[in-house]
Every structure is written in structure tokens, then in C-alpha cells.
Design a protein that fits this description.
This protein is of the alpha+beta class. The chain has two domains: 2-55, no CATH class; 73-150, Arc Repressor Mutant, subunit A, CATH 1.10.10.10. Helix content is 35%, strand content 15%. The chain has helices at 38-55, 73-82, 93-99, 106-114, 141-150, and strands at 2-8, 11-17, 22-27, 91-92, 127-128. Strand 1 (2-8) and strand 2 form a beta hairpin.
């Protein structure tokens, strides 16, 4: 595994990658011991580059590999469906629940979003409550608002 830190407009972001792909994008300095391999180091470096390009307004989509091995059950279905929410668009928790075939599971979708280990690249910031506002976010509401403004989804 490899670890890299990014000083971004929304604060420090930690990237952790293994030989499969990015396995964590965390808000703040994630204190995790890693023993880097050349493959993991390369993936972490590519993720940092792509995140910097995103923050600078030069990237809309991420192409760095993602480690999806921890995705199981409903949570896994939600996170996989979340990857289909495109740059510049948003979806409600209920809309995402409908997308995974469980239209009454909006609250469960919210719980899945709260455990998303790969923020920004797996864009949980694009999921909004149906009653208005931006909702909660692991990086804090100001960070979520910044990301939505960056994508043109928030005035």
C-alpha cells in the first residue's frame, strides 16, 4: 500500500492505494501505516495528479483504478451506482435508491454514503437530500458545497 497527502482547496486529503487501485480518499491526514510497493506508489501518484487536476478545474472524470473489493451487499450496489452520477449532476438519496432497485431505501443510501471510503473519486458529494440543502458530508458541509460549486451544481 502507498499513502500520499494533497493540500487541496478543501483541506488536506489523504490518498491510499494498493496494487489493485485507490482504496481510500479521506478528508484530513489519515494516520495509517503503509508499506509501499512500486505498483501502489504509481497508483497513488496518478490519483494525486488526477485529484490536483480536478481541484484546478482541469479534470471532470477520474481514470485511476479503484479497489472495489470491499463492496458487498446493498452498500456495494449503492457505491457502484454512485459512480454513474456524472460530473456536474446531482441525484437525491431517493433517486439513488431507485437506481439500485430499492426506491424506499433513501435512508439506507445515506448510510452507505457515510461509509464511502473513496470520497470525490466515488462522488458521494453529488448526492443531495430531496428536501433541499446539501446534506451531510464526511469532509464537512463547506467542502461539499465547494465541490458542488466546482462542478457547477451549486450556485
Amino acid at each position: 500500500m502507498a499513502k500520499a497527502l494533497i493540500d487541496s482547496p478543501i483541506g488536506v486529503v489523504t490518498v491510499i492505494a494498493n496494487d489493485v487501485g485507490v482504496c481510500r480518499v479521506w478528508f484530513g491526514n489519515l494516520d495509517e501505516d503503509v508499506d509501499g510497493t512500486s505498483v501502489a506508489d504509481d497508483i497513488a501518484t496518478r490519483a494525486v495528479l488526477q485529484l490536483r487536476e480536478y481541484f484546478d478545474g482541469q479534470r471532470k472524470d477520474f481514470t485511476v483504478p479503484i479497489d472495489r473489493s470491499e463492496r458487498v451487499g446493498f452498500r456495494g450496489e449503492v457505491l457502484t451506482a454512485l459512480e454513474t452520477v456524472s460530473f456536474g449532476t446531482t441525484i437525491t438519496y431517493g433517486g439513488l435508491a431507485t437506481r439500485v432497485g430499492r426506491p424506499k431505501a433513501a435512508r439506507a443510501v445515506g448510510s452507505a454514503m457515510a461509509t464511502n471510503p473513496i470520497g470525490i473519486i466515488v462522488p458521494c458529494h453529488r448526492v443531495l437530500p430531496s428536501g433541499g440543502g446539501v446534506g451531510q458530508f464526511g469532509g464537512g458541509v463547506p467542502a461539499k458545497e465547494w465541490l458542488l460549486r466546482r462542478e457547477g451544481s451549486l450556485g
